Amino acid sequence: MSEKCLLDQWRDMAYDRNLPKDQLEKFWGTYFTIEREIYEQLLENPDEEVKGTVKELAEKYGQDVMTMVGFLDGINDSLKTANPIETMEEDTVVSLAFDKELLYKNMIDAKADWLYGLPQWDKIFDAETKKRLYREQKQSGTVRKAKKIGRNDPCLCGSGKKYKFCCGKNA
After folding, report:
1. Taking a C-beta distance cutoff of 8 angstroms, is the pair 26, 72 a contact?
2. β-pairing, 93-95 with 51-53?
């Protein structure tokens, strides 16, 4: 039987239900600090494509491979071209070329205020753009139901008849 892929190893470690709650909280607290530090560096040069093997990127950011796998899993939906995270190994070449608006919105969606609140975003987007992106992301998760037309309401077709005598006759 083959060894588990890196992503599965990361997920087993990060979502271990057998770990006591305090240990899991400590694990995630440490991870979120590391994640923030990597994003601070990435956002300093948002148009530069950071590329290398998983192992090289882990070394570049001073992390172990498993932590880098977690970071790659988190950023994957915000990349211009997704990495093969399901099959990647230490020597798989990956890219961190991200779509700025998508990354910002995904950070909002994840409720990661420690990431979308980073001061580096101020050099990328002005306050109005950040507000617009925040609003767009929040509204994208809002389901709006169309107002149901009543039988006695005027018909939507504009005939002037009641709906029940017009388009709603056979409804």
Report:
1. no
2. antiparallel
Q: How far apart are CA 76 and CA 96, in angstroms?
A: 8
Q: Residue written as tokens 């509204």?
A: 139
Residue 66: how many CA atoms within 13 Å on its side-chain side? 10
Helical segments of 96-157, H only: 100-109, 113-116, 121-124, 127-140
Region for 52 from its dihedrals, namely left if φ exceeds 0, alpha if ψ lies in -120 to 50, beta otherwise: left
Write down the pTM of the prediction. 0.79
Tens digits of per-residue pLDDT, 49-94? 999 999 999 999 999 999 999 999 999 999 999 999 999 999 999 9
Cα 148 from Cα 94, distance rounded (Å): 49
